[in-house]
Design goal:
Strand content: 15-25%
Number of domains: 1
Number of strands: 9
CATH class: Alpha Beta
Structural class: alpha/beta
Bound molecules: 3-phosphoglyceric acid
Number of helices: 10
CATH superfamily: Aldolase class I
Shape: globular
Order of helices and strands: HEHEHEHEHEEHEHEHEHH
Radius of gyration: 16 Å
CATH architecture: Alpha-Beta Barrel
Largest sheet: 6 strands, parallel
């Protein structure tokens, strides 16, 4: 699939789902807040099941698989119906598996060398992770010097909140932003769907303001 959805929404909710039973209510809470893009991380045993359940129950959601550390993760994610993949780093095995499966992948990078390697491997939309810990907006501004003309776009993730979100969205090299702040593990564990919807709606307001 193409990744226009990402450029339209400009936000990916990064979710850690311990119980597959929470997957559909979580997706519903995000959708109710105006966000249709969710990344289910492969950090829990139920991740693939969670992806499959959301895909079945809510075809209007765009569901990706995150924390893809191995080719096996990629294959399991694709089998579950994942529509995009995200990795915290740049792995040739993950890259190859994603290309083989025709899965759009957002590999993680920080340094110029990693960006060059990702471009060599055929990826243009890169997760910039962990964004806040590695220079955040200032680092992205500096990277635009040598890489601005390449068409590379970033999805900064890690330490982003509604408060610093506008600073990232203002950068032309930022395609979208990822984060867990609207659906933290604790909120999911408490099944606090109204709070997740409210935090999502707040984030979507910031995004609408950035587009205006
Ligand atoms: C992750 O993969 O953990 C994401 O980068 C989420 O980061 P955050 O929890 O700081 O939003």
């Amino acid at each position: 699939m193409n990744i226009d959805f990402l450029l339209q929404q400009r936000l990916v909710c990064v979710a850690v789902i311990d119980r597959p039973d929470d997957a559909v209510p979580l997706a519903q809470a995000l959708l109710a807040g105006g966000l249709n893009c969710i990344e289910v991380t492969f950090r829990t045993a139920g991740a693939a099941e969670a992806i499959a359940r959301i895909r079945k129950a809510r075809p209007d959601a765009i569901v990706g698989a995150g924390t893809l550390l191995t080719a096996d993760h990629v294959n399991k994610a694709v089998a579950a119906g994942a529509q995009f993949g995200v990795s915290p780093g740049l792995s040739e095995a993950v890259s190859r598996a994603a290309h083989d499966a025709k899965l759009p992948l957002f590999p993680g990078v920080i340094t110029p060398s990693e960006i060059m390697r990702a471009l060599d491997l055929g990826w243009q939309h890169l997760k910039f992770f962990p964004a806040e810990a590695f220079g955040g907006v200032n680092a992205l501004k500096a990277l635009a010097g040598p890489f601005g003309h390449t068409g590379v776009k970033f999805i900064p993730t890690g330490g982003i909140t509604a408060a610093n979100l506008p600073n990232y969205l203002a950068l032309p090299q930022v395609a979208a932003v990822g984060g867990s702040w609207m659906a933290e593990k604790k909120l999911i564990a408490e099944k606090n769907w109204p709070k997740i919807t409210a935090l999502t709606a707040e984030a979507m307001k910031v995004i609408a303001a950035a587009k205006a």
